[in-house]
Amino acid sequence: MKYNFLILALLVVPFGGSAQTRTAARKPVASASQKATIRSQASGATSTAAKPAPAPASTRFTTEQPAPQAQPVAEPKAVEPANKPTAQPVAERPQVRPVAVAESKFRIGVRLGGNSSTIGGTDVAAVGAGVQLERIMGFHGGLVMNIGGPGFSVQPEILFSQYGARLALGSDYLQIKYNLVEVPVLLKASFGQPNLRFFVNAGPVGTYAVSGTVSVREGGQSDSQTIDMSQQGRFNYGVSGGAGVALKAGPGTVLLEGRYSYLVGNEDKTTPQAAMLSFGYLIPMGGR
């Protein structure tokens, strides 16, 4: 029984000591210096609460310290609306190109001018000493057609034209003049600006003799008579070519041209020739 009591006492004593130790750890006893510090802090808080309210800022700045320097006032920023529409890129307007107008492929007009003609293939010396072959003046005029583009075209014409020559000896002469229907068909090439173009042309030409006259002047007296065309060949052919300038004027084009025609197809082996200077006017038909 005695040993059992001792054993029980040994078991109870350690547990009691550990419990006291835990209690002391949870509630430490403040020392004298710590208590004095706590009292001073409490008295400082009480004195602070008892102090009167601070003086106004103006009085405080005047009596206690200099007033602070004025700070620059920032400019207010513009307030953008919340629903400000965003700038949309401006769509470029499509460039309006001029509509190309198809130029007419067919033009028609007139041509009028003068001829200076002669006849080749004639032995003037066989006629007589001192006889000279001279050119005579005439005219031409008629219808002109032009088919094709501005650069290259075909130009047929139907003209009334005069060819001839004169054998002169002093003041006396023998003159022959034919009235012809002349039909040249020319290939024409043009170049330059739309309002001012230069051109060259060349092609075959055919003629038909309508009538003719023989005029004689001798000893101050003159006479003329009609040629009997039934006894002569009326058809002739040859070549013709020239150059000129075309000027835009109104709805059409003015033509200024120099041309030379050379006929070779008659039976008596003579060669009627004519230098022509003319002006004309062509008007486009359709296509505009």
Descriptive account of the structure:
The chain has four helices and ten strands. The protein has an eight-stranded antiparallel barrel with strand order 1-3-4-5-6-8-9-10. It is elongated. The chain is α+β, with helices and mostly antiparallel strands and 288 residues long. β6 and β7 form a beta hairpin. The longest helix is centred in the first third of the chain and has 25 residues, at 2-26. The model is unreliable at 1-29, 45-51 and 55-64 (pLDDT under 50). The protein has a domain at 106-284: Porin (Beta Barrel). Residues 98-262 form the Outer membrane protein beta-barrel domain. This is Outer membrane beta-barrel protein.
Structural class: alpha+beta
CATH architecture assignment of one domain:
Beta Barrel
Q: What is the CATH topology descriptor of one domain? A: Porin
Mean pLDDT: 77
Spans where pLDDT lies below 50 across 5 or more residues:
1-29, 45-51, 55-64
Oligomer state of the chains in this structure: single chain
The dominant shape is elongated
Strand order of the largest sheet: 1-3-4-5-6-8-9-10
Strand % is over 45%
End-to-end Cα distance, whole Å, is 147 Å
Describe the main β-sheet briefly. Answer: 8 strands, antiparallel, barrel
CATH class of one domain: Mainly Beta
Helix content percent band: 10-25%
Q: Could you give the count of β-strands?
A: 10
Keywords: Signal
Protein name: Outer membrane beta-barrel protein
Organism: Spirosoma profusum
InterPro entries: Beta-barrel_OMP_2 (IPR025665)
